[in-house]
């Protein structure tokens, strides 16, 4: 995939994901997988892009008064150290592709499910502390190993268990993405301090896409349509990575 085409693709991914309250980690991994990037490039690049879009999202949610310490910190207590550990672990390509392919498949199916699901406001309750710790730790390890922020897996869990409404779930997810991605990137850097030379340009593209996506998602585009588009991208990339591992 030519450099400009790749830069445009990740900017579009950032716009689509940010419009539904996510940072885009699985989308960046999917695009880089389709473009034929090696795992040692995919992982740190996806994490770095995820950090930028997560920062933009956290600023937006903070200004909207949706970020609260009590809602966010239980998921990060174990999520942060396990993401750091996961970032320091490097799977060989023969293992990385089927693992990430399976995660993309799960994310795509969950995105399809999320396009139809609603939230029962009357049944909401704060997450039990221990269960939130365990959930954050497991997702943190998986996200660190694979290079995704983890918010796309945390958000469905929160909504399914009735721990928060849709807007606060997006805020928690953005915070979780930021903490986990930063920790995982630190783990990657400690063991493999190499980043692509084109990363600053890609960051600029993703930053622009994230800002545009947040604006469009809030004002113009239907969430269900966006989720269906993202689901199609994730499922296509999952099939490619799983097929390449056979």
From TrEMBL:
Any one Gene Ontology cellular component term annotated for this protein? plasma membrane
Residue ranges spanning the membrane: these are 45-62, 71-91, 129-159, 171-192, 198-218, 225-243
Subcellular location as annotated: Cell membrane; Membrane
Q: Which UniProt keywords apply?
A: Cell membrane, Membrane, Transmembrane, Transmembrane helix
Any coiled-coil ranges, and where? none
Mode of membrane association: Multi-pass membrane protein
Judging by the UniProt lineage, the source's domain of life is Bacteria
Question: According to its UniProt record, what is one Pfam family this protein matches?
Answer: TauE
Q: What's the chief localization of this chain?
A: membrane
Which family, according to the similarity comment?
Belongs to the 4-toluene sulfonate uptake permease (TSUP) (TC 2.A.102) family.
- Which PANTHER family does its entry note? MEMBRANE TRANSPORTER PROTEIN MJ0441-RELATED, MEMBRANE TRANSPORTER PROTEIN-RELATED
Q: What is this protein called?
A: Probable membrane transporter protein
Organism in which the protein naturally occurs: Methylobacterium soli
Q: What is the lineage of its organism?
A: Bacteria, Pseudomonadati, Pseudomonadota, Alphaproteobacteria, Hyphomicrobiales
């Amino acid at each position: 995939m030519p450099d400009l085409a790749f830069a445009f693709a990740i900017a579009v991914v950032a716009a689509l994901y940010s419009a539904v309250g996510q940072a885009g980690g699985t989308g960046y991994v999917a695009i880089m997988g389709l473009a034929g990037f090696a795992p040692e490039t995919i992982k740190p690049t996806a994490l770095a892009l995820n950090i930028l879009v997560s920062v933009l999202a956290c600023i937006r949610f903070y200004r909207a008064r949706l970020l609260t310490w009590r809602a966010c910190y239980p998921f990060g207590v174990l999520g942060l150290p396990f993401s750091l550990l996961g970032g320091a672990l490097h799977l060989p390509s023969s293992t990385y592709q089927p693992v990430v392919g399976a995660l993309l498949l799960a994310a795509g199916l969950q995105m399809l499910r999320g396009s139809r699901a609603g939230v029962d406001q009357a049944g909401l309750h704060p997450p039990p502390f221990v269960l939130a710790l365990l959930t954050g730790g497991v997702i943190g390890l998986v996200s660190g190993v694979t290079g995704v922020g983890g918010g796309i897996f945390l958000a469905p869990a929160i909504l399914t268990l009735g721990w928060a409404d849709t807007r606060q779930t997006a805020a928690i997810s953005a915070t979780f993405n930021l903490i986990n991605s930063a920790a995982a990137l630190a783990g990657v850097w400690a063991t493999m301090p190499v980043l692509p030379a084109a990363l600053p340009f890609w960051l600029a593209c993703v930053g622009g896409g994230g800002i545009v996506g947040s604006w469009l998602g809030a004002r113009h585009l239907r969430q269900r349509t966006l989720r269906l588009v993202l689901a199609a991208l994730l499922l296509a990339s999952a099939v490619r990575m799983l097929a390449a591992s056979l």
